[in-house]
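Design a sequence for this backbone.
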């Protein structure tokens, strides 16, 4: 790495790389705790929340899926309650629409009941195991042998939440600097230097929340490249108005316990539209939102990684099914028809897509929990996929605690 000449345009106490919802929540938590802190959030895009935050499902997850005792389980359950309190305080609309996870075959029933026990262990409020009659009351056009009902699951516009976080940061004296891509990082003594197109920035402490670029930004500061981020694209379809009546709220299948994706499901949006999806296929670029969006270096980085090769060998059948579904509208809709048979291919239109930044270990295992790594004056968020948006206020508090202890703030 070429040495950075220490000629800076500005100096702060703490810099945060990434103006997605996790980076902004972390900045907000630190300024609440240390009002005199000179803090700046940097992002390469011209506006905040342009990637995972602005392109996710918008669900305030209840914490059903996560291993009891894990960071995901604890921070999601606490974070969901904190998120709704914050929305109440800031006048951000949200909808407690509820959610069902539906078993449609006998072989899914043991997994459904195990998921229910996990939800109880995680302390999810008002969770119920229901039969077909109650399912029909909630979702008249749905079919299933048994289901989990989570009445406190909600939806929100996380882009709007992120904007309020940014407003809070500015009101407390912090800066949100868009158009500041961090291209180089160098640690010299007690200082950290960041090179951006807008000039140099000198900071005492650094926190990186770079999402799909988490591994690359971490390596700029000398951190290990593992766990590596592999981007997975998820496409959505949207129900046409004439079929909108078929689904009331959120209907999910029973997930594959070995695969960290939830399967094609229905997602009610704050504007009243109903999205179906997402699938999960390897993205051909870290910002490859379209099927034909190919970034050769990104793609080579992913497929050349030994961890991805091992994952692909283990799950080639699942991966092939996902790829076929990605290119076949009929196959995609068939996944929805398992629990809502009346949905038709003619009744849906192509919708948007998102990218999930999934950390992958060298042995081919998908990193399941949130991962925060501290190294001297730097803290890296190495893995923060869903439910990071739901958990964002609690993730911010967790990293604030780490920074208080590690940085001696």
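Sequence:
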């Amino acid at each position: 790495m070429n040495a950075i000449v220490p000629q800076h345009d500005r100096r702060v106490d703490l810099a945060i790389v990434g103006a997605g919802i996790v980076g902004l929540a972390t900045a907000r938590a630190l300024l609440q705790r240390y009002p005199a802190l000179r803090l700046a959030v940097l992002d390469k895009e011209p506006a905040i929340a342009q990637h995972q935050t602005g392109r996710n499902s918008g669900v305030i997850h209840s914490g059903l899926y996560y291993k009891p005792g894990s960071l995901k389980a604890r921070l999601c359950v606490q974070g969901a309650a904190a998120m709704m309190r914050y929305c109440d305080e800031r006048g951000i609309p949200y909808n407690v629409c509820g959610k069902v996870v539906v078993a449609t075959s006998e072989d899914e029933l043991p997994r459904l009941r195990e998921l229910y026990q996990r939800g109880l262990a995680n302390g999810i409020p008002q969770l119920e195991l229901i039969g077909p009659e109650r399912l029909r009351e909630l979702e008249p056009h749905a079919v299933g042998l048994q289901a989990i009902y989570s009445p406190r699951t909600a939806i929100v516009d996380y882009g709007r939440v992120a904007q309020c976080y940014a407003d809070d940061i500015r009101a407390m004296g912090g800066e949100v600097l868009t158009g500041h891509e961090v291209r180089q990082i160098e640690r010299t003594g007690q200082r950290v230097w960041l090179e951006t197109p807008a000039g140099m920035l000198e900071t005492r402490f650094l926190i990186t929340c770079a999402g799909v670029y988490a591994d690359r930004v971490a390596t700029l500061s000398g951190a290990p490249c593992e766990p590596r981020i592999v981007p997975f694209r998820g496409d959505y379809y949207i129900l046409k108005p004439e079929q909108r009546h078929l689904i009331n709220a959120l209907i999910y299948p029973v997930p594959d316990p070995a695969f960290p994706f939830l399967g094609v499901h229905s997602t009610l949006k704050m504007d009243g539209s109903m999205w179906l999806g997402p699938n999960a296929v390897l993205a051909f670029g870290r910002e490859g939102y379209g099927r034909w969006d190919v970034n050769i270096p990104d793609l080579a980085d992913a497929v050349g990684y030994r961890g991805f090769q091992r994952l692909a060998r283990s799950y080639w059948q699942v991966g092939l099914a996902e790829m076929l579904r990605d290119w076949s509208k009929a196959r995609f809709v068939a996944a929805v028809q398992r629990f809502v048979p009346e949905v038709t291919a003619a009744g849906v239109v192509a919708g948007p897509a998102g990218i999930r930044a999934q950390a992958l270990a060298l042995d081919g295992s998908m990193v399941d929990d949130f991962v925060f790594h501290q190294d001297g004056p730097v803290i890296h968020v190495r893995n923060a996929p869903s439910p990071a948006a739901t958990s964002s206020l609690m993730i911010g508090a967790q990293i604030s605690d780490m920074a208080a202890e590690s940085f001696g703030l």
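The chain is about 30% helix and 25% strand.
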